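This part of the workshop introduces the protein records we will be handling. To make this concrete, we reproduce a full record directly below.
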Amino acid sequence: MTTNAKIALVTGGSRGLGKDAALQLAAQGKDVILTYHSQKEAAAEVVSAIKALGQRAAALHFDLSDVHSIGTFLEQVAQSLAFTFGTDKFDHLVNNAGIGATIPIAQVTEEDFDRLLNIHFKGVYFLTQKALPMMNDNGSIVNLSTGTTRFCVPGYSVYASMKGAIETFTKYLAKEVGSRGITANVLAPGPVETDFNNAAIRSRPEMKQMLGNMTALGRVGQAGDIGKIVAFLCSDDARWINGQRIEASGGINL
């Protein structure tokens, strides 16, 4: 195993886009700490796959909706860095964890709003804030957003609004941490066939076909389409990309 590899913290790394991002980062020669909410066994499988690639890995439980748990979680990160990786800092933060929800505006409850706010904006904001002292200079932050901040899909008003806030936050983040050589960028996927939002695309062939027909490339995305871009944004080749929103959607709604 590589003992001086850079380390990435990937939230929501047990499945979907986060899983593929973690594996792509490992294939790039990075060690990975990934988080899971409920899928402990799936997270352990990702850890095993990363180790099979010759990199070190650890999985930690984290509930992003509980903003007050961030401090305790980062204490666990610090312990993992010390015991598994022999260091006290990491290099890359990938804010990927999230949930899907398709709720028309007329049906949104305050509980719905607050849950999405905590997971997709408030939790990401304060996790990033509190993690920055634990990051090495010249690292990178990748925040996952969505194509629906550019084009509208009925039912996504709350989800997309929170992601829009993340896009603004990322620009400010890039400005304020730039003196440390840390880059911050947004990656905004279009429709991707995963188990996200109750596998809405995977389980509905007619939706998959319709969305695929809306892209210039004629298909919906796969997790691997996104994970490779995350790994690129965490590589030295992307050092001059900063404060940007990069949409990875195959050219939808052009």
The mean pLDDT is 94.
